[in-house]
Write a structure and sequence with these properties.
The chain has helices spanning 3-20, 26-34, 38-41, 85-95, 112-121, 134-143, 179-184, 235-244; strands at 47-49, 56-57, 71-75, 80-82, 102-106, 126-130, 150-153, 165-170, 185-195, 202-208, 215-224, 254-257, 265-268, 272-275. It is α/β, with parallel strands linked by helices and 279 residues long. It has a domain at 1-85. It has a ten-stranded mixed β-sheet. It has a four-stranded antiparallel β-sheet with strand order 2-1-3-4, with no helix packed on it. α1 packs across α4 (85-95) and α2 (26-34) crosses α5 (112-121).
């Protein structure tokens, strides 16, 4: 396939992704247009899915199949995928990523969204891509080797030692926000993570660190389901979250730490809770 044809695919794909996410964001569109999906998907044919449906196999390795708004399987047996482009476009746009920022990504997979993040922060930014699966981390390191601003770390993103970050972007479902993530954020930094333990359709929660205090602005940016984040699973919390998401989840406005929940509480964890009251 000629470069011109590949560029044509990506141009339509980027517009399709932004249209599906109801976005008018030139920087997000440009990032999806600029990053080739083929290296991160591996050799075809590929297994594709719309998320809540079964995988289907493409008839051959025509890259046109990759430039659709679909999941691409990396490991069907374990449920590892390159996530839905329109969903990530929506979430990334809500993060308001600026050039030269430092981003920590937890759950990098083969590195596709790490490359998108690298495009958004530019040559002066930094992306630390954490991937606990060693085989996927090796693929990500190879795929991202030409991006000097990306460092792949083949380790857990909840085990400590995270660099100070302007954004932590998590691609693995959790039953709670990790204190390690919160502590790594600079003042004004953002955490976007799926409050969605394994097997739970939860929501992508955007949290912003205040200059001071224990009340953090927070809101959900759409529903989300991910493979579970190792170390942040809780079956009982998952049951309660499933019940909580059946009501007024869009009303959440703040994260409260180490406070006693009041009548504005939407969901309470052990040392944290989400409130419908503004920060």
């Amino acid at each position: 396939m000629t470069p011109d044809r590949s560029e044509k695919y990506r141009s339509v794909y980027a517009k399709l992704v932004c249209a599906a996410a109801k976005l008018d964001d030139p920087r997000i569109e440009d990032s999806f247009r600029s990053v080739r999906r083929e290296p991160f998907a591996g050799p075809g044919p590929w297994w594709l899915s719309l998320g809540a449906h079964s995988y289907i196999e493409t008839p051959d390795d025509d890259p046109a199949f990759l430039y659709q708004d679909v999941l691409v399987a990396l490991d069907r047996e374990h449920g590892f995928n390159i996530g839905m482009p329109s969903a990530h476009a929506l979430w990334l746009a809500a993060c308001h990523i600026e050039e030269a920022e430092t981003v920590v990504q937890v759950g990098a997979g083969s590195g596709y969204y790490s490359a998108i993040l690298a495009h958004l922060v530019g040559a002066g930014g930094r992306v630390y891509a954490y991937e606990i699966d060693q085989a996927l981390a090796a693929r990500a390191r190879e795929n991202l080797s030409d991006l000097h601003q990306v460092e792949v770390r083949a380790q857990s993103g909840v085990a400590g030692g995270l660099p100070p970050a302007d954004l932590i972007y998590v691609c693995a479902g959790a039953a709670q926000p990790s204190r390690i993530w919160l502590d790594a954020l600079r003042p004004g930094g953002r955490l976007m993570f799926p409050l969605a333990p394994k097997g739970v359709l939860g929501g992508m929660l955007l949290i912003r660190r205040p200059d001071r205090g224990s009340v953090w602005p927070a809101r959900f940016v759409g529903r989300a389901a991910f493979i579970g984040c190792v170390g942040l699973q809780n079956e009982e919390a998952g049951r309660r979250l499933t019940e909580a998401f059946s009501k007024n989840w869009l009303d959440v406005r703040s994260l409260r730490l180490d406070e006693t929940p009041d009548r504005s509480c939407w969901f309470a964890g052990e040392t944290w809770w989400l409130s419908t009251a503004d920060a």
